[in-house]
Amino acid sequence: MPALGRKRRAEREDEDDGSPEPATQGRLRTTQNDNPSDEDDTGYGNGNGDSDSNAEQMVKKLVRLALACEYSRLPIRRQMIREKVLGSAGRQFKPVFEQAQLQLRSVFGMEMVELPEKEKVTLAQKRAAKTQSQSQSKTAQSYTLVSLLPAPFQYPAILPPPSIPTQATEAQYTSLYTLLVSLVALSGDELADTKMERYLRRLGLEDHTPIPGYTKTELLLKRMEKEGYLVKVRESAGGQGEEDVSWMVGPRGKVEVGEQGVRGLVKAVYGDVDGHAEAELERRVARSLGLGDAVVARRDDVPPKKKRGPRRKHGEAEEAEVGSDEED
């Protein structure tokens, strides 16, 4: 019996320990759970701060990527942007690209522009283009940086050539690819390989060049191909392994040199011309570029208009005719 009494008293004590806690303690715990933590107050708990910082980092990465590609004369490819900048945030391409454009314009005075695609010249290229789906949206696949500075500031004294490896070497290379791109453009955007060799022979560049590291002309032309200034087209001419080789202006050559660069080179070669000689030069350059005849109208060539007196009203004209009839 004493053992049973002790057992019943122990069960009663356990029931007393399981009684509900006081109301004050319950309210205290409730208020502690309702109060937001310090991380929530900073804005990082809901993810807004993290997303903003990630977007800023992606914009900075894209700006650095664009500058690095321009330094190496490489195209800024869309796939490269997705892999090295966006990562898993592929849907953020448009806002990140627009913010990077704002940074490039406001800080560096540059912007990314679309590079044109290589023209489909050979039969194989044309057939491959036809087999592609017509429903695919044509979005820009590669870009390059161009300067936004006004024309008065685009001079070597303000924009000198890069100093790596040396300014003299970069200036020579720039002059050479500008000259070759202009020759191809003035030939109707396609120059036969035999004519290219003839031009190189006249320039003293048949075998060797003054560019360090590219002393062979063949190596220099391959560099221009790689960087997109020129495109070498090979097309089979017969069944005996013969092929026709020609040169065309590459995507980077069209953007960096372009029509304005070709016109500037021609004017620099011909020097200052006035009057009809300048108009004739403009017509010939435009015709060579495939733009048609550029009509340059000068004020001296336009015949003066005949001066006419004030127009009479219809009633006054009739009265004058009647008066003349009465006098007759």
UniProtKB/TrEMBL annotation:
Listed Acidic residues bias regions: 318-328
PROSITE patterns: MAGE
InterPro entries linked: MAGE (IPR037445), MAGE_WH1 (IPR041898), MAGE_WH2 (IPR041899), MHD_dom (IPR002190)
Entry GO terms, CC: nucleus
Domain MAGE: 55-115
Extent of Basic residues compositional bias: 305-314
GO terms of biological process kind: DNA repair
Annotated region described as Disordered, given as residue ranges: 1-54, 293-328
PANTHER family found in the cross-reference section: MELANOMA-ASSOCIATED ANTIGEN MAGE ANTIGEN, NSE3 HOMOLOG, SMC5-SMC6 COMPLEX COMPONENT
UniProt-recorded name of the protein: MAGE domain-containing protein
